TrEMBL record:
Superkingdom of origin organism: Bacteria
Keywords assigned by UniProt, alphabetized: Transferase
Leading EC class: transferase
Residues annotated as domain DAHP synthase ferredoxin-like: 1-66
Keyword presence, Transferase: yes
Its EC number(s): 2.5.1.54
GO molecular function, one term: 3-deoxy-7-phosphoheptulonate synthase activity
Protein name: 3-deoxy-7-phosphoheptulonate synthase
Domain DAHP synthetase I/KDSA: 87-328
Keyword Transferase: yes
Species assigned in the record: Nonomuraea guangzhouensis
Length: 343
């Protein structure tokens, strides 16, 4: 059972709840978040009277959820959620395009990539300043300098920024620049990082671990939610299989499955899943067709010079077709075309 406290709840309200719960022999775990405080109950909750808990001062909601993830579960939150990133919605009514370079390399490259993203209809800019690379000898990202470049490009274009954080110690720094914090596949079960981004007060994009089941993915999201942050977008980015023709295998069925199990928006990364430029548009069409709430796509003005993931980046010549897909496909699903940017 989970008790969600309202914003108006006082310390005394919380103490009374904990006392009632403990008197029934049940343990109470209090998580104080930026926006909400949550009390997780462990033990024989059958002893507790849900209606009287609900009536206690400061209580907003009491949830009895059968799934192991509670706050992100759709069981108690039948309506699908919309997450707003710098005013841009990601949710059931729209298909949001997030695009930009895999890594921030130079101010010019980032600005050019942002302009390419806008031509394709993107309303959010992606770009990594801290890169989680398989090899310690590969380009690791520009760090804070990269964040400053992203902030300058946001200023120039109006596009809010989505950028990855790889270390719990950097969360505050990255959150001071980013509009949305990305947690990558390699950190998808880094629980200390998940808790830190949950406490940062910024929307979070949580990629699926490349070897994570859908339940493990939702449990990872629960770590973020449990810190009081329910502004989470799930991102399917392919899982590791025996297949070598593609970088990862896009698990397209994960989109409707996750949407049925969780109220959180679900988007797809057709760039990192296929790992090949020629697959990005077909996989984008598939993602929108299956009901994804958005796509996140790599673009680069000169992919042959890219310091990271050049082979999967779309080039100028691909943008017209991507724009057309973003315009024509969402209405077929009863969604609006790429969400309008609110500046
Ligand atoms: C990325 O989006 O830049 C990235 C590293 O993705 P993933 O974590 O899915 O590999
Ligand atoms: Mn990449």
């Amino acid at each position: 059972m989970v008790i969600v406290m309202g914003q108006e709840a006082t310390g005394d309200d919380l103490a009374s709840i904990v006392a009632v719960v403990q008197a029934a022999g049940v343990e109470a775990f209090v998580s104080r978040g930026v926006r909400r405080t949550i009390v997780g109950l462990v033990g024989d909750v059958a002893q507790l009277d849900e209606a009287s808990l609900r009536g206690m001062p400061g209580v907003r909601d009491v949830m009895r959820v059968s799934t192991p993830y509670k706050l992100v579960s759709r069981e108690n939150h039948p309506e699908r959620s919309t997450v707003h990133v710098g005013g841009v919605p990601i949710g059931p009514g729209t298909v949001t395009l997030i695009a930009g370079p895999c890594a921030v390399e130079t101010p010019q490259q980032t600005l050019e990539a942002a302009r390419m993203a806008m031509v394709a209809g993107a309303t959010l800019l992606r770009g990594g300043a801290f890169k989680p690379r398989t090899s310690p000898y590969a380009f690791q990202g520009l760090g804070e300098q990269g964040l400053r470049i992203l902030a300058d490009v946001r200023e120039e274009t109006g596009l809010p920024i989505v950028t990855e954080v790889v270390d719990a110690q950097d969360v505050e720094l990255v959150a001071s620049y980013a509009d949305m914090l990305q947690v990558g596949t390699r950190n998808a079960q880094n629980f200390a990082l998940l808790q830190a981004v949950g406490a940062a007060g910024k929307p979070v994009m949580l990629k699926r671990g490349m070897n994570a089941t859908i339940e493990e993915w939702l449990m990872a999201a629960e770590y973020v939610a449990q810190r009081g942050n329910l502004d989470i977008v799930l991102c399917e980015r392919g899982v590791r299989t025996f297949e070598t023709a593609t970088r990862n295998t896009l698990d397209i069925s994960a989109v409707p499955v996750a949407q049925r199990l969780s109220h959180l928006p679900v988007i797809v990364d057709p760039s990192h899943s296929g790992g090949r430029r020629d697959l990005v548009l077909p996989l984008t069409r598939a993602a929108i067709g299956v009901g994804a709430d958005g796509v996140i796509i790599d673009v680069h003005p000169h992919p042959e010079q890219a310091l990271c993931d050049g082979p999967q980046a779309l080039v100028d010549g691909d943008l017209g077709e991507l724009a057309q897909v973003m315009r024509d496909f969402p209405p077929l699903l009863g969604k609006s075309a790429a969400a309008a940017m609110v500046v």
